[in-house]
């Protein structure tokens, strides 16, 4: 069984955001699959770079809606996004420096973060967004 799988508990009830979350989860699953076949290091850089690029796009969308709908906890949410970007940037630096055993560390961090962030922090804006017409 995959370390993280999409399920209804992860849904924020906004299709556009749910679809982006599914993409992020797929990146984690791709890393896990590669690791299972002994190819984790081979795909790790690609996954990290894709995460860096995709999360910037995804976070910008969430933050746009938070601003547009005057979401009360926007600063806390943005701080979590910034922390994530800093962590993934550090993983990239570690990869470029040849740090060993990084695949497992990245996999565990991403899985834990996605579960807690989507099921915790993102769920908090769900009602605000849907009340304002996003679906």
CATH architecture of one domain: Up-down Bundle
Helix run count? 4
**CATH homologous superfamily annotation of one domain:** Hemerythrin-like
Calculate Rg over CA atoms.
15 Å
Strand content: under 5%
Secondary structure: helix percent: over 70%
Content-based structural category: mainly alpha
The N- to C-terminal Cα distance equals 30 Å
CATH class of one domain: Mainly Alpha
General form: globular
Q: How confident is the prediction overall: mean pLDDT?
A: 94
For the sheet with most strands, the description reads: none
Compressed to H and E, one letter per element, the order equals HHHH
Explain the overall architecture:
Helices cover 77% and strands 0% of the residues. The chain is mainly α and 135 residues long. The chain starts with 14 loop residues before the first helix and ends with a helix.
What is the compact description of this entry?
This protein has 135 residues and is mainly α. It contains four helices and no strands. The longest helix is centred in the C-terminal third of the chain and has 30 residues, at 102-131.
């Amino acid at each position: 069984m995959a370390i993280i799988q999409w399920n209804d508990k992860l849904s924020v009830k906004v299709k556009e955001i749910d679809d982006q979350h599914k993409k992020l989860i797929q990146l984690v699953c791709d890393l896990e699959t590669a690791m299972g076949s002994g190819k984790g290091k081979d795909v790790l850089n690609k996954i990290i770079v894709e995460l860096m690029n995709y999360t910037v796009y995804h976070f910008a969308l969430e933050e746009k809606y938070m601003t547009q709908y005057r979401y009360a906890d926007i600063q806390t949410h943005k701080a979590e996004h910034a922390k994530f970007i800093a962590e993934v940037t550090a993983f990239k630096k570690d990869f470029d420096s040849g740090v060993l055993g990084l695949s497992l560390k990245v996999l565990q961090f991403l899985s834990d973060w996605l579960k807690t962030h989507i099921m915790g922090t993102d769920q908090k804006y769900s009602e605000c967004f849907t009340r304002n017409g996003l679906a």
